[in-house]
Amino acid sequence: MDISDIAKKLGLSDSKHIIRKAAELRRLCDVQFDSSAIGVGEICKAIICLEIAASGWEEVIFDRPTVIKLSGMSEKAYNRSLNAMQNGLGVKTKLDIRELGIRFGCVRLIPFVQKGLSLYKDRFLAALPTSRRTSADFTRPVFTAVAFYLCAKKHKLKIDKLKLIEVCGTSESEFFSVSTSMKDLCHDVFGILKEKKDPKDVKVN
Q: Is 136 left (phi over 0), alpha (psi -120 to 50) or beta?
C-alpha cells in the first residue's frame, strides 16, 4: 500500500502537497535510519510520514481512530513510534489545539487554551532578561498539551493526563515542570493556585 492509497483512506487524496511532503519524508527516513529497528513497518511508516507532513497545516485534522486501525498498532505503540520517527528525522510537529479538542471531546476549551498560551508566552518572556528572550522556544507540543490540561481542570472536565503526555511526546517530569510554571504565571486564566505569584518571582529555565 503506497502513500497515495493510505492518503485516500484518510480522506487526504485531494491534499497533494501533503502527499508529496510525506513521500519526501519517507525517502529521507529510508536514507537516515532503519525504521524496522524501532518496530515500525512499511505501512505504519507511511502513515506516520503523512501525519508529520499534515501537522503543519491547520486545516487538516487526522482521523485518529482510522489512523490507529490502519497502522495495526495500539494507540500507545503508535504514539511511541511517531515520537521515535520524529526524533530520527529531526522534525518537530505542532500539536494542534483543535485536534486535541476533538480527540478528547473538549472542543469548547479551544479559545481558553489559545488565550492561556498567549498570556503565558507574554508573561514568561517578560520575566526573562532581554538577552534571553529571543532564544525562548514555545514550539514544543508540551506547552499546548499543558495549557489544554489545565483549562480542562479549571472547567471540571476529565482528561486522561497520561494519554495526553503520550500524544505530545514528552515526559511526565517535563509535563509537571511546564505545568508548575504555567500555573504560577497564569493564575488568573487557569485558576489553580490560591495565591497569585509575581512573574518576577517565578524561576525560568
A: beta
pLDDT tens track for 91-136: 766 778 888 888 888 899 999 999 999 999 999 999 888 888 887 8
Per-residue model confidence as pLDDT tens digits over 32-41: 877 777 778 8
Q: Please say whether the beta carbons of 45 and 76 come within 8 A.
A: no
What does the block give as the cell for 94? 505542532
pTM metric for this prediction: 0.61
DSSP string, 118-167: HHHHHHHHHTS-GGGGGG----SHHHHHHHHHHHHHHTT----HHHHHHH
Residue 164, C-beta contacts closer than 8 angstroms, at least 6 positions apart: 100, 104, 145, 148, 149
Instruction: Give the burial string for 39-53 (b: 16+ CB within 10 Å, else e).
Output: ebeebbbbbbbbbbb
- Residue from 62, 73, 71 nearest 11 by CA: 62
